[in-house]
Amino acid sequence: MKVKFSYFAQVRQAAGAESEEVMLADGADLAAALAEVSARHGPAFRTLVLDDAGAIRPNLMVLVNGAPAAKAGGRGLADGDEVTVLSAVSGG
Amino acid sequence: MKVFVAEREVEVEPGARLCALRDRLKPGADVVVLNGAPATADRPLAEGDRLVFIRRGEVPGREELEALMAARHTPGVHQRVKRAAVGIAGLGGLGSAIAVALARVGVGRLVLADFDVVEPSNLNRQQFFVDQIGRPKTEALAENLARINPYVRAELHPVRLTPENIPGIFRDVDVLVEAFDRADQKAMLLESFGAAFPDKPMVMASGLAGHGSGNSVRVRRLGRSIHVVGDLESAAEPGRGLMAPRVGIAAHLQANTVLRLLLGEKEG
Predict the structure, then answer these.
(1) Phi/psi at B192 (5° precision)
(2) Region of B203 on the Ramachandran plot (φ > 0 left; ψ -120 to 50 alpha; else beta)
(3) Which of B125, B200, B206, B218 to mutate to test the interface with A (most CBs of A within 10 A)?
């Protein structure tokens, strides 16, 4: 299946692209999808989105098709989905 | 024809003039606000004009106060935001300033949540006072808001927000504002509120520390209903603190985004 990823801020810098389309295994969940994308972009990208255990980092904000997505236990992605990824930074 | 004086309908003759009406209803008034802006010269009135006459220094009665407070708003804004409910998650530098701005503009109900108390290091940027140190932020802010606008209803939740209690606390807000300090809490709120109310708008902030250019703090719309204010990069960290000017820029951009959403306008 083909999924479009859009990146912002540090994640965009690490990816070297604002967006890209990625072929993924059917039914891949968000963590698997980000692991796959991390493999393409290297350790700087992976460090931003996944922890050492491969879980999605707590400060990562992810939208699927424009709506906030569950980072664990959510539904698998589907062909044509659009995933938006950015890291929240502290301060308030 | 009809005009409105301090939000009350008044019948005037066609061709009636501003100063004559002032002299009839409030002789000696030295400030005249017409349709949201000060009027400095006499002029003929038009159907539907909204006017307020003020004697400088005179403390109005309670009934008149709300109309006088709204006099400088664009006509029509106050009536619409008065019906609205806005949730604010976190009452620090962002949340306390957003609450003050929304109270001044007359949002009818604010749902305020923060588990913490006011402490001295908050006072460099947060809308509290020295004599409020040690008090729960919810209680202290509600007191300050009441002094600004007694017509705002503040619903207080002095609790730590979690994925479990977020949907209940903010179930009936029109817009939710994320105003946390910690990055993981920002993402948690997005996920928790978004799961419960995927189409309700959220206004978030990320990247506002330090004293970098204010021009880099801006509003971005992500997806259908998520707005993020900030430069997305300037984290609070050793060597880059949180200071009133830039935090205030972000807070007021968040408040303005809330206002625009309540008025049905698109942002970002």
Answers:
(1) -70, -45
(2) beta
(3) B206
What pLDDT, in 10s, does the model give residues A78-92? 999 999 999 999 999
What total number of domains does chain A contain? 1
Q: Which domain holds residue B31?
A: 2-59
Does residue A83 belong to any structural domain of this protein?
yes
Dihedral of the alpha carbons of A23, B190, B209, B127, in degrees to the nearest 10: 170
**How far off is chain B from A18, nearest CA to CA, in Å?**
14
**CB-based contact A68 B226, cutoff 8 Å:** yes
Question: CA of B230 to nearest chain A CA: how many angstroms apart?
Answer: 10
Q: What angle do CA B108, B217, B89 make, to 5 degrees?
A: 40
pLDDT at A8 over 80: yes
Which residues, at least 6 apart from B40, have a Cβ–Cβ distance to it below 8 Å? none
- Does the ipTM surpass 0.90? yes
Chain A: residue whose CA lies nearest to B89: A92
**pLDDT tens for each residue of B191-231:** 999 999 999 999 999 999 999 999 999 999 998 899 999 99
- Residue B244's pLDDT is 97
Neighbouring-strand partners of residue B2:
B11
Length of chain A: 92
Same domain for B243 and B139: yes
B220 interfaces chain A, CB cutoff of 8 Å = yes
Could you tell me if residue A67 is inside a domain? yes
**CA distances from residue A90 to B28, B57, B149, B184, B252 in whole angstroms, order as listed:** 53, 44, 31, 8, 18
Decide if B23 is inside a domain: yes
